[in-house]
Amino acid sequence: IGPYEIIKDFGNGSFRVSLPARLKQRGVHPTFHASLLRIHIPNDDRLFPGRMDTQIVPFDQYENEWAVDSIVGHCGTGLDMLFTVKWKAGDTT
């Protein structure tokens, strides 16, 4: 996703980026370690003709999302992992 402008260098390998409101509303924190950031290289239309950033599915298209308060248990391993979740609404599943 991105590109996003770096608005602050903390001097310890961490950077704050200017995130759009839709990502902030989803709880994405604007501070990242340098190892998670990449320099933006614009699309080379000769190598990838017709590729546009609008082809990426926006985050706000998903519905029926729920806020998790905590994970209270789990069982299984790998792709068969199941979690017991306490939701912000108060119920547990």
TrEMBL record:
<dbReference type="InterPro" id="IPR056924">
    <property type="entry name" value="SH3_Tf2-1"/>
</dbReference>
<feature type="domain" description="Tf2-1-like SH3-like">
    <location>
        <begin position="1"/>
        <end position="38"/>
    </location>
</feature>
<protein>
    <recommendedName>
        <fullName>Tf2-1-like SH3-like domain-containing protein</fullName>
    </recommendedName>
</protein>
<dbReference type="InterPro" id="IPR016197">
    <property type="entry name" value="Chromo-like_dom_sf"/>
</dbReference>
<dbReference type="Pfam" id="PF24626">
    <property type="entry name" value="SH3_Tf2-1"/>
</dbReference>
